[in-house]
Design goal:
Largest interface: A-B, 25 and 34 residues
Largest sheet of chain B: 6 strands, mixed
Largest sheet of chain A: 4 strands, mixed
Order of helices and strands of chain A: HHEHEHEHEHHHHHHHHH
Order of helices and strands of chain B: EEEHEEHEHHHEHEHEEHEHEEHEH
Number of helices of chain B: 11
Helix content of chain B: 25-40%
Strand order of the largest sheet of chain B: 6-7-8-3-9-10
Radius of gyration of chain B: 23 Å
Oligomer: heterodimer
Strand order of the largest sheet of chain A: 2-1-3-4
Radius of gyration of chain A: 28 Å
Number of helices of chain A: 14
Number of strands of chain B: 14
Distance between the termini of chain A: 26 Å
Chain lengths: ~375, ~325
């Protein structure tokens, strides 16, 4: 009889889960902390970076030029250096990321129509910050040069102008990019561990033997183990959606039911992965190590931080095996771009396939062997 | 009821159970003895369908344990080592779980639980979590769970390990009652006094079944009672001093202390008078010397020694 013993296992698991409020709390708490911490901490928008200036020219023009630097909002002047050495030292000591040096002949060269140079020192040890500082200062110089040339040529309009329009994330908020990814990771850790440990616990206590002697079908045992955690995980997913929507103000432009369907398939796949681990692991320690070994690659290869397209092909291939890849892509598509199930049906199909596939493997693998 | 033929289990290169054959009749209490790691639990696990035998076969009530385990599940009950229970569940919840697992529902479930609670006297502890129950109560609860579906064969793996003497006595009273009702019991134990209570015993040593049969019959085996020798009980003062003297006497094959007395296996050439005079030399007066029959312990010790000698010669 398929699913025999399902009700017995299901009711028992529910009782066990709710008997231990501490364990339940620690299932819910870390994902919420993760999403809040990551949502606030992970910020690509570099603004107001500490800058030290060395103005050797001391003219109205040079001060005006420095004001333009400040007005970009990218730089924040934290002090004036009196020498190049002092400026370098400030950067080396980590008190500023950027140093701007205006040489004594800046205004003279500018007014004479010669090449006026400004030196910008950037701390390259943090690539995100360095890149932003580089682009902003280059852009500033280019714009100043252009304005000067235009004035000389008597033109009032830019010869060519690009008018970018940022779709789906007009203010370029990095939370909009990161939070959907964090949702994928936050759900992952709690779910995989929950089921990975649940069968290992029975094995360690010896209760698994009693189950094997009883008229219980493998599918009944597995489904009975998964169902309570499906409920818990979906509650958790709802909480995470609420935090994303109301704490980080991330829009949900697509349909909420598509969002929940994606979450359900994803969580089902992860719980099955956890069960699969528990059919291999002989004790708690092994289950924990295996779970971590599986979870860690998905942090790097799921497109959570680094775009999959820029990875070497072996890692691109690896990313196609990770459920989080499909889920994170779906979250960004549905929440930010308002994509529908039809637009992204391959992702739904892959996630369903993973959920059913992993579950089937668990059921088949869980032969009567415990020694 | 249970028939094993050449039952064997390998784990890699290690042979945990080697060509074990025996049979257990309906309603008998079969005591399965052996030191730790000798293969007792492995035999039970194979009989219960938890482990697949590597070779040989076993049948319970005519069903093959390896191939017809589904038919067998309703017939056998299993109480595992250390009374495995769900610690975070109460006694009632543990019973409820096993009841549902064996397809009891509603009124039938409640009725069966009440029967088991009465049988195991669990009433005062129903709302305690299994984690806080003492060994004896855990054992009763585990037994009630194993009996849920009224099995015709009950396997108990070291049911009395670590529990108090009263609980032990009560368990055996229950086992005799079940046996009287026609249930077949298969019990592993380390205790010789428990072995003496069984209707049949088997002794497994280093993966091989050394001996199997009715205790009274085993005690009269020629290997246990070698011709030209007899067993004596010597009760006297200072038994440990006496033991040193008698052990080194020619013609005394073995000597062990039993409380206030010694058990000796002596050749017929050694007379009671000789023993008395030797004891008198170390100041032990008036020993009480009586002939005795072999105990089960004597049976197992003698046969194990023989096995070791054979093993060494091979």
């Amino acid at each position: 009889m398929p699913f025999r013993g399902f009700t017995a296992i299901l009711l028992k698991e529910f009782t066990v889960v709710f008997r231990d409020p501490t364990a339940l709390f620690f299932m819910f708490f870390p994902p919420l902390v993760q999403i809040i911490a990551f949502g606030y901490a992970l910020d690509n928008d570099v603004k107001h970076m500490a800058t030290v200036v060395l103005n050797e020219d001391r003219t109205a023009e040079s001060r005006q030029f420095l004001d333009k630097f400040k007005n970009t909002q990218t730089f924040r002047v934290v002090g004036e250096a009196r020498s190049v050495e002092e400026m370098s030292a400030t950067i080396r000591q980590g008190r500023a990321y950027v140093g701007v040096q205006i040489p004594p002949d800046f205004t003279r060269n500018l007014l004479a129509g010669r090449n006026a140079q400004v030196q910008v020192l950037i701390d390259g040890s943090s690539s995100t910050i360095a890149l932003q500082a580089l682009q902003t200062s280059l852009g500033l110089a280019l714009r100043e040069s252009l304005l000067t040339v235009m004035r000389e040529a008597g033109r009032t309009e830019m010869p060519v102008e690009v008018r970018p329009q940022m779709l789906y994330n007009p203010t370029m908020k990095s939370a909009n990019f990161f939070v959907p990814g964090v949702m994928g990771l936050a759900l992952q850790i709690a779910t995989v561990l929950a089921t990975a440990l649940s069968i290992v616990r029975e094995r360690e206590r010896g209760t698994l033997e009693n189950l094997l002697v009883a008229p219980l079908s493998r599918s009944g045992l597995m489904l009975g183990k998964i169902t309570p955690y499906l409920g818990i995980s979906m509650t958790m997913a709802t909480g995470i959606f609420l935090v994303a929507r109301w704490v980080f103000g991330i829009p949900i432009r697509g349909s909420v039911s598509a969002l929940f369907l994606a979450a359900f398939l994803y969580v089902f796949a992860l719980l099955s992965v956890g069960l699969l681990i528990s059919t291999w692991a002989h004790n708690h320690m092994q289950a924990l190590q295996m779970s971590m070994a599986l979870i860690l690659p998905s942090v790097f290869f799921s497109g959570f931080i680094f775009p999959i397209e820029t990875m070497p092909s072996i890692f691109q291939w690896l990313s196609t095996l990770i459920p989080a890849t499909y889920f994170i892509e779906l979250m960004r598509a549905i929440m930010l771009r308002g994509a529908s199930i039809q637009d992204y049906w391959p992702n739904f199909v892959v996630l369903s396939g993973m959920a059913l596939g992993f579950f089937a493997v668990c059921v088949l693998r869980f032969r009567r062997k415990i020694a | 009821m249970i028939q094993c033929e050449g039952l064997t289990k390998h784990f890699g290169h290690f042979t945990a159970v080697d060509q074990v054959s025996f049979s257990v009749g309906k309603g008998s209490i079969f005591g399965f003895l052996g030191p730790n790691g000798s293969g007792k639990s492995t035999v039970i696990r194979m009989l219960c369908g938890i482990l697949q035998p590597s070779d040989g076969q076993a049948r319970i009530a005519g069903f093959d344990v390896a191939r017809q385990s589904d038919e067998l599940k309703g017939l056998i009950g299993y109480m595992s080592q250390k009374f495995s229970l769900y610690d975070e569940l109460t006694a009632t919840e543990n019973l409820l779980f096993y009841g549902r697992l064996y397809d009891f529902r509603g009124a039938a479930l409640r009725q069966r639980m009440d029967e088991l609670i009465a049988l195991a006297h669990l009433a005062p502890y129903l709302n305690r979590r299994a984690a806080v129950l003492s060994g004896g109560w855990r054992q009763r609860l585990a037994m009630a769970c194993a009996l849920m579906h009224k099995p015709t064969v009950l396997f108990l793996d070291e049911p009395t390990a670590g529990i108090d003497p009263v609980a032990r006595r009560e368990l055996w009273d229950l086992l005799f009652e079940f046996s009287g009702q026609g249930m077949t019991l298969f019990v592993t134990t380390h205790y010789m006094d428990e072995a003496e209570r069984c209707s049949h015993v088997g002794y497994i040593y280093m993966s091989k079944l050394i001996v199997c049969g009715v205790p009274d019959h085993l005690k009269t085996l020629p290997a246990v009672n070698p011709p030209g020798a007899r067993r004596l009980d010597v009760t006297c003062d200072h038994v440990t001093v006496g033991l040193q003297v008698l052990r080194n006497l020619p013609g005394v094959r073995s000597a062990t202390v039993f409380g206030q007395s010694m058990h000796l296996l002596v050749e017929d050439s050694v007379s009671e008078a000789l023993l008395t005079s030797r004891l008198a030399e170390v100041g032990i007066q008036n020993p009480d010397i009586r002939p005795i029959a072999a105990s089960l312990e004597d049976v197992f010790v003698t046969l194990t020694a023989g096995q070791t000698v054979n093993g060494g010669a091979r």
